[in-house]
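A reminder before we start the practical. When you read a complex entry, don't treat the lines as separate problems. The point of joint prediction is that each chain is placed relative to the others, so the output describes one connected object in space. Small molecules and nucleic acid strands, if listed, are placed in the same frame. In the example below there are two entries. Take a minute to note the order of the lines before looking further.
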Amino acid sequence: MAPAVPAAGPAARVGFIGLGVMGRSMALNLLRAGYAVTVHSRTMAKAGDVLAAGAAAAGSVAAAARSADVVVTIVGFPADVRDVLLGPDGVVAHARPGSLIIDMTTSEPALAVEIAEAARVRGIDALDAPVSGGDVGARNGTLSIMVGGAPEAFARARPLLAALGTTIVHQGPPGSGQHTKLCNQIVIASTMIGVMEGLLYARRAGLDPDAVLASIGAGAAGSWTLSNLYPRAVHGDDAPGFYVRHFLKDIRIALAEAERMGLRLPGLALAERLYQDLVDQGGALLGTQALHRVLEAASPPANPR
Amino acid sequence: MAPAVPAAGPAARVGFIGLGVMGRSMALNLLRAGYAVTVHSRTMAKAGDVLAAGAAAAGSVAAAARSADVVVTIVGFPADVRDVLLGPDGVVAHARPGSLIIDMTTSEPALAVEIAEAARVRGIDALDAPVSGGDVGARNGTLSIMVGGAPEAFARARPLLAALGTTIVHQGPPGSGQHTKLCNQIVIASTMIGVMEGLLYARRAGLDPDAVLASIGAGAAGSWTLSNLYPRAVHGDDAPGFYVRHFLKDIRIALAEAERMGLRLPGLALAERLYQDLVDQGGALLGTQALHRVLEAASPPANPR
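Here is the predicted structure of the whole assembly.
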């Protein structure tokens, strides 16, 4: 059974919208894989290295979408996704029938369903395909890509996604990619609480936090967060690998979805309160590991020295 | 500087008290390493394979302690530790001056300090050396051993501990081993909440939990708990690797220590409430992954099918 529409191999022309930290690295990987890439970003100043690597520039979202076989979007918040994908000047309105849209933003499952439906009406395939793996994963092409949408659309997208990530799993119908990414964030949220509470306890008990990591890092307490973010917190490095304000956005999307499904997630609700406190204390642009600050602030040492 | 007392090499006679799941495997590993081991347990019925492997049996704690160069204890709750170590018929009262006591139970830091002090008065070295790594780590001799006590005592114990574990870290003065183990449990507690909330969300969103694990297991959400206990929960296996009632004991010791230090640990406090709910629902003898049950019970499906 030959696919009605060609798979998104390197012959495909790619429209790429969103050149944040993640988007830039991903566009570069598509260029390296041989794709003809036309980029657009709200702030085209960010496009420098991508243009230098051979991308064409488009003056608008519509222009980037119009000539593309595949349109990849990775923007900021759900409101941006709605604007860029569903707005009158957006991707769905201007992409060619028969083309394929892949939204890689972490966003709302219901919005992904809405996009897939609007695209279908115009004869366009659409996938939600958020990623994890951070700036390093985007740079090295080792992202985990969680895909929701029709199986045929997933099959079309697969060659292109393989230029961006190493773990590429079709999770189900539209919205399933977003749901899976929310699972990822739900797991991380409480893991972070545990790791940073462990750090706070270690310090207050007079232990050497590095020695504690040597004892507990490789066992049942072990996690990516413990191995990677605990050491940064120990050594006062709260620089962003992932921004607090983006994580808080994801946590809130997950809480809203959970509420819609009648689901109580007390750990996630606690994370929401703690990260809101961190934002209130001026931490929106810190890395997520800065959670240790609000825990410490809530428990000032009894005898400060 | 030659040590005043010989190191605990295979020439040492070991008194071993406590033959639970962990203790039995550890005693066997000491026998394999060439130690002469005399065992005592509250229920000597558990001693079968250890006696078959060459251990001698002692009829009482005092008898096991009296003839030993090193006394190893691994019992259940802090009350047991107090009784076995500090009671009138206990180890400290009956061990030889110059001997070495190693309590490997997960217990209270303050109690470890008390034991070390009582031992010191009698000319005995004492270490707190709780472990992590579970039944498998005990069996394979790959435990992580977290040690509190005097450096000289740690140096004496090291050869013997090397027969039991592969990660052996001196964490500081008496009580530091216990504090480190509590850090381990604090980290695990909230990690477990995150993992099981992720599972609950995945199920309720209609995802395939195994596919979700394939997407999130190797990235920033990754943890020992996610790789090892999430699959058991997915497939309905709530059998104990580690008992709920023992974990709840550890959580409560950590919360009490935290309170003493003026420390608020909201994630750990949440874990305490959830695990108490699990015990109230009859789950005391399940494995810790059974936490998913209380989360599910708190959020019954809106439209049960």
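Discuss with your neighbour: Chain A has a mean pLDDT of 95. What might explain this?
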